[in-house]
Structures are given as C-alpha cells and as structure tokens.
Amino acid sequence: MTNAVGTRAVFGVIVPSTNTVVEHDYWRAALPGITYRSGSMYIPNPVMGNDEDFQALLGQIRTSIDTAVRDVLTAEPDRLVMGMSAETFWGGVAGNAAFELRLRERSGLPVTTGASACRAALEELGCRRIAVFSPYQPIADREVGRFFTEAGFDVAAITGLRCATATDIARVEADRLREVVADIDGPDVQAIVQVGTNLSFVALADQLERELGKPVVAINAATLWHALREHGLDDRAQGAGRLLREH
C-alpha cells in the first residue's frame, strides 16, 4: 500500500540478517516514490565453508523466513522481493515455482525471486549462452546451473567464490570479482550472470558491460528491475547496468 514516501510502491524485501548489500543497491538506484521495508531472516551461524555448512545455512533461512515475511507484512507492502538467491534456485525451475507459490499463499502478494528475475532479464536481453558466478559452495552452484539449464539456457561456465561465511560475501573486493569474470568469460558467452545477493557487484557490472560489450547481469539489479516492471513501473536507473538503463 502506498504512503507518503512510497507514493508509487512499497516493496517488502526479505534478506538474511547477514546481508548488508541488497538494501544499499536498491536505495542507490534513487527511484522516486519507491520505498523498501526489509524483513530479516535470523542467521545465528553464518558459516558456509563447505557443502555441509552451506546446507545448514539454508536450514537457518528456511526456519526463519516465515517470521521475516510476517514482520514485513506489517508495513503493508505491495510486493515481496527476495533479497536472497540460493534458496530460489534450489530444485530447479520447479523448485523456484514451488517457493514462489508458498510465499504468495503466505503473504497474499506477488513475489519476485532472484531465479525468476535472472531468467526474465536474460530473456529480455536475448541471451542464451551464459557464464555464471556466485559466492557459493559447489552444492549450490550445481543447483544454480540446474535452474538455468532447465530454463533453456546454455551454461558455458559456472564457478563459486567459496566464501567461508555469509558475512564474508560482502567483503569480496572488486579486483577479485574482475578476475572471476575474466576466468568464465569467452567469445561465445553472450552474458555474464552474478548470483548471491550479498556480493557488491551492481556498479562493477555496469562498468564491465561497457568494457566487455555484452550484458553483465547483477542479481540485485535484476530483482529490482523485475519488481518494477511486474508492478507496471518503467523507471530507468543509471549506473546499475543495461537492464535498468534500457529495458
């Protein structure tokens, strides 16, 4: 429901308690009349140093997401936006669809997830052969690759940064992100895709697009774009990549 500061839309953003990047990226877009209310999923143990740890981290997300949604609904938002991505890719296309359905039923609101937003973004950009990177462990990268493959994309490469904790994700420097993009890029790759919402990549993705001459999709830009367009808003933003600037 709109209000004095969210005159055109109020988005409820569901984030892990360890995440410091999503809200920064959304506010940085400086969209007039759009406001955000975050609901936090409590993550008491942010360790994700191997596959088993990563599964335990997902368990914490699954335990706390209902409370985060409950809390954010008190602000009467118009839409839920998932400011976390791994869970939305889990189980492939069907897993994401089931996740969205559960949230719609719990909230009574339309839902934007990272998986659906990236899929819609790539379709809008006309890209099929992609290279993907994440801050994750191999178990999660396999799920990300599965989703994109089932959605009809050709995944040329996928790699994870293997961050030790969920908070370490936000500490990855731009130079390291440039290195990983260079490692997975190639002349046959039509687009680079970044997942993992606590990676600070939106501004760098905008720069890399100009340098590489191809789309570089940062997940936080994709979810904001998807939420806006699905809500009937055509706002454009500078410095956040081609998707928000031109589509």
From the structure above, extract its key features.
247 residues; alpha/beta; Rossmann fold; four-stranded parallel beta sheet; 8 strands
Cα radius of gyration in angstroms: 17 Å
Task: Kindly name the structural category.
Answer: alpha/beta
Strand order of the largest sheet: 2-1-3-4
Q: Which CATH top level class of the largest domain fits?
A: Alpha Beta
Main β-sheet description: 4 strands, parallel
Proportion of β residues? 15-25%
Q: Please give the CATH architecture of the largest domain.
A: 3-Layer(aba) Sandwich
Instruction: Report the strand count.
Output: 8
Element order, helices and strands? EHEHEHHEHEHEHEHEHH
Helix content: 40-55%
Q: Which overall shape is indicated by the principal axes computed on the Cα atoms?
A: globular
